[in-house]
Every structure is written in structure tokens, then in C-alpha cells.
């Protein structure tokens, strides 16, 4: 933790004294901000980082990591159920939510201190408070003013504001990951990552899950055939999906909620004990005073050029969920963009991030995975495709664990034998996709991939047969 010392006066008309003068100030101590701060400090730059919340950001504290710890409980319940009558008696097996939460806290609680210590060791000044631009090269942090030659905006994303009557009754993903108990009936607004992942979790914990999506197709960025298989598998464990349905309003009723749904002009009211926001996230920029620094932005993020520098203020860079780039709002993308932005600042270069081969996973049970192009995108690009579609449910790996929903769709460019997309639905396929990602990134042909030998029997040894 850094104690500021007053240095001089502000460069602009502002009269508040400027406390420090840095080579780089990073706003947001999530995965993007921390990666960039360390990289620039390693070059001998004077670097400061600030966050209004404990250090660690969404992924480590309120997203990927705690979510997947809680999912472990659901995995065990589901795995035992799949082995019912095959040697496992799952009668009486239950998820103890408070114990699972305590297990989660065992991971998340030490994160802020350990992140901050790592930054301290790297020579980065660690600041706390809400940052707001007050000039092209100045920010205010809770009444103290700082000046820097450059800024990296890495403020992440927040739930998209909703406007139907009663929206204030919804809890968001952060609240969900802190729940003391799971109530019996949970309704999720939106048919994306958050709703599907949480619905698969609560369904194994004994709650009923209902997902309301305003679109006809949930999980739109994934292969539509595989999404339908996942929806069917979800139905088997009690997850109900309503498509093309709007929320008309949410009313509190004693200790629960009445949610009025509207589909094709017809209204229907359903009961829920909890209503969860899974209707998308927007860049967290509205309270950052970007106008004071002439920084163009939208809800997609800070407008940046291909090398992540602001299109309107050359002192400003952006990375991760708060940058308007072609990269998806995912942790590996945030880290990769932050490293590219830092490298461009240090070397004065104009490198663009390379998003090729970065996989994305919906951590449902089983998991849904994508890397590379969708089949429709590849066809639109005129690629002469071979589509290798395999129902892998009967393969040894899935037979062994009793899973009856598993599929692979691999898209291969016939002209050069390169994989352009891989879409998988099945247990442990979130590990297998990393090999597909490697092949896409490094331009490994299917012939070369098939020439490698995996340990047997492993999920990796199924890869050759998927090609
Ligand atoms: C429930 C959930 C599950 C997810 N699961 C996955 C997953 O499994 N895999 C995956 O790849 N991605 C996942 N994501 C997405 C992933 O968490 C984000 O893409 C990633 O955290 C973005 O990192 P970031 O550094 O850009 O922003 P963040 O980690 O959000 O960090 C931004 C930081 O900026 C701070 N901040 C904001 N405004 C200010 C301000 N004005 N002053 C000071 N500080 C400020 C915030 O407090 C925050 O700590 C998930 C997201 C959610 C919500
Ligand atoms: N495993 C992961 O990598 C992971 C997990 C969770 C979140 N995330 C990140 O967080 C982001 C946000 O997740 P998310 O699930 O909130 O959003 P999302 O963008 O994945 O899905 C939002 C869904 O909500 C629907 N929707 C929007 N407004 C609605 C309304 N008023 N009523 C009904 N439906 C509505 C949309 O049609 C869409 O299907 C994701 O884009 C993802 O990048 C990633």
C-alpha cells in the first residue's frame, strides 16, 4: 500500500495539488491491469495501480475461479448419478452449500493480499479508491490527484442495466456467488454463459432452474447443434428454457417473486424464490469521467485502435473487458491484450493482439466448448470445409463414466488441412480444446496432429478419432 506525498501543482486549471507523477497509471487491478502493471514495472517504469475493490478483479474473486469451485459440488453429484446402477449408489448424496462456500472462500479470501504483495514486490505502487479522470493526464482518486504520462484503463465490465419494472429485485452474478443458501426455485434472466452455468450448478444442488431468454437461440456464440443437445441434457436434470420471451415485470410477494413473462403477446406469471441477472455485461466506464480526458467510449468499451491505444487520447490505452476490441470478454483475452498494450507502450510499437486459437468454454455439465470459427462463419468466408461430426457418447471415455451426451464437430479447411474451428460438448472437453487451440494458433495440420501419440486411455487419445 502506497502513502501519497504531495509533489506540486496540477498542469491544468485545476487547483488541487498533484500528488505523484508516474510513467503509467493502471486503473483496475483485475487480471488485465495486474499483468500490464508488472510488465511495465519490470522495465524500470514508475507504475501505480488502483482499484476501488479488493485486488484480484472479477475472474479471481467474483467469476471464473469461485464459480468453478462451486461447480465441483455439482460435478460430483452428476458423476454419481450417471453411475447409478453401474456400481455407485448415490442415494443420500447431497451438496452441502455452506461447506462448499467455505471451500470457495478458502481460495478467494487470500487473493487480494497475495495480488497486492506480488505488485509491491514488483515495485508497483498499490492505491485504493475510485479513479476518475480530471484532465488528459490526470486522475482523481477519492480527492487525491495523480498525474501520469500514460494510463491503462482496465476497469472490466458490470451487469447490463435492465429497465423492466421490478428489475431492482434481481441479484447479479456477484451476489449469486456469495449466497448463504440456495432457495428451491431460481429464475435466470438471459440465456447466456452466466445463466447456463449457474442453472447447471443449482439443478444438481436440488433447486429448480428456469432460464428466460428474449432470443430464439440461447448461447448464440456457440455451435447451434451442440447448444440444442445441451438444452436437452439440461431438461433431463430439470432446467427449463423459455425462448423468445421477455420479462414484463418482477413483483415481490412476501419472501418470493412473481415474474410476468411475455411470449408472442401472451402473458404468464411464474413464481420464483430468486431472480438472477444473466442478461449480459457492459464495460464499466460510466463513472470514470472519460469526457474530462477526451476519451471516446461506448458500452462496448474504450474505443481503441488495433494496437489498443485510445482513438482520441494518445496517452490512454485499454485492455480486457473495458476495451472495445474484437476479443471476447474472457480472462485469457484480457491478459493477452494487457501484455500487448504494455509491450506497445514500452517499445513504441504497434503490435495487435492475436486472438487466434483462444478457446471459450461454458462450464455446464457437460461443458460446451468452442475455438475458432463457427460453421456458418467459415461458410460465409468461402472456406471449402470438411465437417467431421462425431456423436462421441458411445466412445469408451464416455461409456466409462456413463455420460450419454457428448459430441464433437471439427471444421477443417480442405485446401490446406488446417483446423478452422472445433466445437465440443462433453466431459473434460474443456481440456481437450486446448490442443485444438494450439493447432489453430500454430498452424498444425490434422495430418500432423494425428501423427502425435496421446497417453491411453485419456480424453486426449480421443482427439485423433475426432479428426
Ligand atoms: C460470473 C462470471 C464468470 C466468469 N467465468 C469466466 C470463465 O470461466 N472463464 C473466462 O475466461 N472468463 C470468465 N468470466 C469473464 C472474466 O471474469 C473477465 O473477462 C475478466 O475478469 C476480465 O478481466 P479485466 O481485468 O478486464 O477486468 P476485471 O477483472 O473485471 O477487473 C476490473 C477491476 O477494475 C476495478 N474498477 C472498475 N472501475 C474502477 C474505478 N473507476 N476505479 C478503480 N477501480 C475500478 C474493479 O473493481 C475491478 O477490480 C466470467 C465473468 C463472470 C461475471
Ligand atoms: N465461462 C465463461 O467464460 C464465462 C462465464 C460467465 C460469464 N462470462 C462472460 O461474461 C459475459 C456476460 O455473461 P452473461 O451470461 O450475462 O451474458 P451473455 O452475453 O452470455 O448472454 C446474455 C443473454 O441474455 C439475453 N438477454 C439480454 N437481455 C435480456 C432480457 N431483458 N430478457 C431476457 N433475455 C435477455 C441475450 O439474448 C443473451 O442470450 C459473457 O459475455 C462472457 O464473456 C464468461
Automatic annotation (TrEMBL):
Residues 358-460 form the Pyridine nucleotide-disulphide oxidoreductase dimerisation domain. One of its GO terms (molecular function) is oxidoreductase activity. InterPro entries: FAD/NAD-bd_sf, FAD/NAD-binding_dom, FAD/NAD-linked_Rdtase_dimer_sf, Pyr_nuc-diS_OxRdtase, Pyr_nucl-diS_OxRdtase_dimer. FAD binds at residues 68, 321. Its cofactor is FAD. Disulfide bonds join 59-64. It comes from the Bacteria. This is Glutathione reductase (NADPH). Pfam families: Pyr_redox_2, Pyr_redox_dim. NAD(+) binds at residues 190-197, 280. Belongs to the class-I pyridine nucleotide-disulfide oxidoreductase family. Binds 1 FAD per subunit. Keywords: FAD, Flavoprotein, NAD, Nucleotide-binding. Residues 22-338 form the FAD/NAD(P)-binding domain. The keyword NAD applies. It comes from Rhodoglobus vestalii.
